[in-house]
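Researcher: Let's do a round of design. I'm pasting the structure tokens now; please hold your answer until I've finished.
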């Protein structure tokens, strides 16, 4: 009986000890802690202000209009004695892609196709279009809508550069008209050695594309911007204009455009997503997001032990806020959280 009583006593002690230990463990797990952002200013730690480059990336819509598919043809009959047609490759204005009866023809993109031979003194929309393209290619022209000896000399130099001889007139049949400064070949319709007639289709080419000016978002950091969308950065104008000499092939071959059209031949317009960034990065301060008191219109304040500093919030990433200080000399460190008692900033 005594041994049994001792056993009961030991079990009772063990039970009481277990309850005490359990209560201690429970207290350990349930002691409330205050998150750093809710601690008082006396417990807020100080963190250094880290400066870094920032390009202020902004997502923008890019509206692209797609023209109808076109063809490349010749204006006279003959046998093709040289033909550089390759699907997927480009035919460029100012160069020669086809030779007919041993005579190289000039590929030329004009807003109005040449429909007649041009002599000195002729005027009209076709002359103005010819002058404009010769000027774009770097040749000196008068540019007044009337073909001059200077204009004729410019075309003669262009023809000579591809191996053709043009002197007294601008012959219509010496030119292969292109719908754009550079066109991408979809399909070669005829081969080397073929006998072609005037007006016969040589190749089918991709539709031209036109990119509208990009609407730049409000609240962006001022400064010239670049558009990242088509594989290489493109300079944007003040109103979001793209370069006037933007190659259509650069747009068509981009993964963004190809994914948007999905291989369809009937697409007339698409809207792509790009990123507009500062051409020259600015220095911004990276501080914990908890350190910023957010006001209206992207403004805010950060705090030191003694005073607030006005800032402009320009971005955020991984729990940090990127800010520009209103003061010329920012602090070297700030409180990691907004103190409960602080001087108001505005």
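Researcher: That's everything. Go ahead.
Model: Designed sequence:
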């Amino acid at each position: 009986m005594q041994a049994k009583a001792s056993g009961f006593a030991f079990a009772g002690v063990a039970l009481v000890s277990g309850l005490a230990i359990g209560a201690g463990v429970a207290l350990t797990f349930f002691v409330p802690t205050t998150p750093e952002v809710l601690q008082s200013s006396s417990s807020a730690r100080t963190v250094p202000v880290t400066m870094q480059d920032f390009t202020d990336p902004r997502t923008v819509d890019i509206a692209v209009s797609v023209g109808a598919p076109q063809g490349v043809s010749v204006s006279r009959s003959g046998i093709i004695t040289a033909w550089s047609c390759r699907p997927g490759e480009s035919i460029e204005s100012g160069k020669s892609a086809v030779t007919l009866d041993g005579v190289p023809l000039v590929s030329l993109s004009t807003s109005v196709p040449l429909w007649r031979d041009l002599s000195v003194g002729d005027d009209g929309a076709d002359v103005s279009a010819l002058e404009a393209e010769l000027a774009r290619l770097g040749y000196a022209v008068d540019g007044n809508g009337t073909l001059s000896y200077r204009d004729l000399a410019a075309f003669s130099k262009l023809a000579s550069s591809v191996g053709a001889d043009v002197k007294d007139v601008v012959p219509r049949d010496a030119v292969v008209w292109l719908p754009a400064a550079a066109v991408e070949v979809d399909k070669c319709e005829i081969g080397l050695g073929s006998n072609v007639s005037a007006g016969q289709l040589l190749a089918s080419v991709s539709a031209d594309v036109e990119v509208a000016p990009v609407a730049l978002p409000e609240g962006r950091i001022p400064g010239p911007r670049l558009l990242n969308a088509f594989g290489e950065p493109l300079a944007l104008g003040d109103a979001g204009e793209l370069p006037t000499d933007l190659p259509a092939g650069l747009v068509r071959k981009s993964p963004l455009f190809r994914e948007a059209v999905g291989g369809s031949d009937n697409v007339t317009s698409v809207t792509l997503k790009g990123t507009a960034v500062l051409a020259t990065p600015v220095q911004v301060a990276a501080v914990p997001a908890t350190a910023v008191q957010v006001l209206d219109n992207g403004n805010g304040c950060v705090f030191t032990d003694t005073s607030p500093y006005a800032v402009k919030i320009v971005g955020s990433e991984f729990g940090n806020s990127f800010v520009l200080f209103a003061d010329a000399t920012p602090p070297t460190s700030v409180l990691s959280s907004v103190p409960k008692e602080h001087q108001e900033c505005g």
